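Consider a typical record:
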Amino acid sequence: MEVEIEASEMEVEEQQPIPSSTKKFGLKDYIQTNYGDDYVFQIVPRDDWTSMAVSLSTNAVKLYSPMTGQYFGDCKGHSSTINHISFSGGSNQHVLHSCSSDGTIRAWDTRTFQQVSCVTAGSSQEVFSFSFGGSDDNLLAAGCQSQILLWDWRNKKQVACLEESHVDDVTQVHFVPDHQNKLASASADGLICIFDTNGDINDDDHLESVINVGTSIAKVGVFGDSYEKLWCLTNIETLSVWDWKEGTNEANFEEARSLASESWTLDHVDYFVDCHCSGGDNLWVIGGTNAGSIGYFPVKHKGTAVIGPPEAVLGGGHMGVVRSILPMPSMQSGTAQSQGLFGWTGGEDGRLCCWKGDDSQVISRSWISSTSTLAKKVPRNRKNRRRCPY
């Protein structure tokens, strides 16, 4: 049963002073996805924003409306932790992909909630991340236990196994937008590797460069006008920014949590959830407290490296660690702007919280700076290269 509760029923924590010249917003409502100790792991949108998928610690994925919170149904089939989910693009937006520690990458038809395809990495493997790309848009890459596996998704044939570049779990794989033959991988061994996936792929001839971060990598992402930059969050909560083309470090924040904590009046920042990019070189690191408050901290990575005061704070919605954040299109392209929706968050309390710019429902600890560039995005006329292999 899905439970939806209005923000007025939430217990509000101690007030935080709201900066002058700010746009106020607050908790619109929240959904309790499950009862008990189930976690929300990840929230991802369909391209047309008619639905969003939410992966849970129950090894299931649930589908909701991002505009209303209406529950649509769930996809069940994985027998272990779901590590990554993503919708297809183009004409196959109804297809959702998921990978799991059960060693499979599955495709689901979200109209029927049924599995339509499954690729197996092996019974002894865990799949932590996947990405579709390649110069012909025909490759499916998966990050596994010290290996990167690649298939031609058109015939499900495995075309490569890269096993010499990493010595620990490959936590992230990303085909680089606008450089679709380039594959970036990141691992618990502290290395980020860049591969050229053209031709007969192998470790010896196709490993182009290696970046040594020095500690176990949790998440990486690509940004910049030409997608030439990488941000990197580690499992010890450090942040760094790199130019992957040059292999150079632009900024290194070894004390990122302390720097973020010093810039606001709330509790110490205990962890980082993710990074947010609104286009160009704009970058924010999203930090949270164990009590459930989160902030968008702007990152200056050119010249003197600085983590600035938060340009948005969300508080009073979660009672535990926040695991995922989904900015709505009002943060990206304006399609939800008329509804004033800021986004959704999910956490270890099993809640999905919806945040909205509506002064009548403002929780006192939630605000966004009126001078923030969070809602701005550099216009791009780029073809959507995501494909559906099923």
